[in-house]
Design a protein that fits this description.
With about 350 residues, this protein is of the alpha+beta class. Helix content is about 40%, strand content about 20%.
Length: about 350
Amino acid sequence: MRRNGGEGVFRQGLGALGEIIMTEADILEFRNELTDRRRRLEGAVAGTGGLPQLTRLLQEVDEALQRIEVGLYGRCDTCHDDIEKDRLRIDPLIRTCLDHLTPEEQRALEQDLALATRVQGTMLPQRNLRAAGWEVSFHYEPAGAVSGDYCDLISGNDPAGDLFFLLGDVAGKGVAASMLMACLRAIVRTLADANLPLQTLVERANRLFCESVLPSHYATLVLGRAAPSGELEICNAGHCPPLLVRPGAIETIEATGLPLGLFCSSPYEVRRARFSRGDLLVLCTDGLLEARHGSGAEYGMGRLKEVAAACYGKSSRALVESCLQDLRAFRAGAPPSDDLSIMALGRAESAAR
């Protein structure tokens, strides 16, 4: 039975920190993290002559490792229920669940989440963008205070330059996933300025992401480059297949490589297409495809294809709005259970002629 105490202020915002179930892989991850911290702290303590603050921190790490050995790690000291796993990933030494924080701790955490929400909002691109002869629209909706979905548009100052478009999903939810999303965003934006072939850009981004995260973390990603000429390049790193909407046909762009973060040397391939007036590309995260009706049925790729096909020749904004309207009708009031992102791209009216 899940505990039901705590302040109501946490029920939505702190839902971003609410993942509970601890697996053997999670325990191994925390043990490795704590063991590494212990090694670093021992060196720091020796180098400072036993500074009291460091000595106390080393003791807390030892206590956490002992709790792992006896099977009590991740249990709340107050109610003995499980501590939220995403909170442990941020601070593996915490010993109290959300429902038993002090009022001061609750206020501090609420303020941190509010700040995280604002910061993540500043990372989003312009919602209805026209650049390089293309128009792009998107919808970005976190299930909690912050999201692990990655949505970005990158265009340079040169109007004749290419437009990069990206949609991805970092494994996990909440604050931990949002931090990994920010890491991936920084990597891709840095590489986008290097004028690399798309395949090379993705392979380098994968290597840098592998070197920056723990082995259990990964991200699916669609990264594309749209040229003013109407030429499109797309790399799909294990993400939901984008749909290319053409007259009387819909093409799926299946994965051309593994998710980022699994193996440093993963190879990636690039798909190419040429856009004509009326053609559209739609991308989404699994928050759309796996959305559920009250009966338990999933929204699914088939339904998305029907909506996309009906929008051929319309604007990218109209396609996004049609997807959202159909999703609301399908859910029939059921609350979302995952982050939701939808992006659509087409030729701008003046460029398509």
